Amino acid sequence: MHSQDFGPPDRAPDRPAPRIVVYSCYFGQYEPFNPKALGPGGGYDRVVLTDQPLLADGITMHSCAPGTQKGATSTSLSRLAKIRPHLFFSQYDWAIYIDNSASLLRNPAQIVAEIERSEGGNAPAGRYLFAHQRRTCAYREARLCLKKGRIPRADYRRQIQHYQAAGFPMDHGLYVNTMMVQKMGDAATDAFNDAWYDHFLAFTQRDQISLPFMLWQQAYPVRLMPHSLFDLAQWPVFKKFRRQQFQSGQRARAAKRAKAA
To answer: 113-116 long-range CB contacts below 8 Å, 24 or more apart?
Structure first.
């Protein structure tokens, strides 16, 4: 049983409330749209980047169609904002990404306040990561993705060979990217995010495999969240059968429209 906690955070009376955005991406209709991903709102902004004509009360929909970038796909666009929030949310103090397949359970202001406390009251700008609870190795993560059919064998081999040639060690950390937290305003983090996105496009499009390598290659500081993902979000919301059922329905509706045209 997951319990929600959207009560107000403890905050020093002389410190202004941080500007927080919680955002998600919905491209390609891979699964049903989940408006609960972003929490109920109140004291923070909620934004969805999408290529679909969606409407949800209190949520800002940012249209971002594949045709807006040369060669872009639904997958690459969904990772654009996820990996590079500075392109969309530079006006905020904190940007919190959460996957459409999860639902936020905690007040974002509470999350931010607890990060600040864990860093002595003045958290550095940059990324804060969720450690993977079961695995610690990008190589093993890649093998698992290959075994489950999530990446082609040729792409798997090319990426692994690239990592081995670079000297990337095994068991160098693995992180859960279902939810990602960034304190904004750090140029080095923005540059890291840009490099990570370029790497993501060049290899298998699995950001959970590429993040540990990029952290190591770029010598980016690893700061861990003072929570597990499951303390802050319900995940997954959709089981495999529900996704398959949704996709089957989408194909049936598309076929019906094509027949009627």
So the answer is: 113/9, 113/10, 113/11, 114/9, 114/226, 114/227, 115/181, 115/183, 115/225, 115/226
Higher pLDDT, 54 or 203: 203
Residues 63-113 have pLDDT tens digits of: 876 555 656 888 999 999 999 999 999 999 999 999 999 999 999 999 999
Q: What's the rounded mean pLDDT across residues 237-255?
A: 81
Burial annotation 15-38 (CB, 10 A radius, 16+ → b, else e): eeebebbbbbbbbbbbbbbbbbbb
Domain 20-131+175-260 adopts which CATH fold? Spore Coat Polysaccharide Biosynthesis Protein SpsA; Chain A (3.90.550)
User: ∠125-113-131 over CA atoms, to 5°?
Assistant: 65
Determine the Cα–Cα distance for residues 184 and 90; give it in Å rounded to an integer: 7
pTM of the entire predicted model: 0.89
| 93 and 72 Cβ atoms separated by less than 8 Å | no
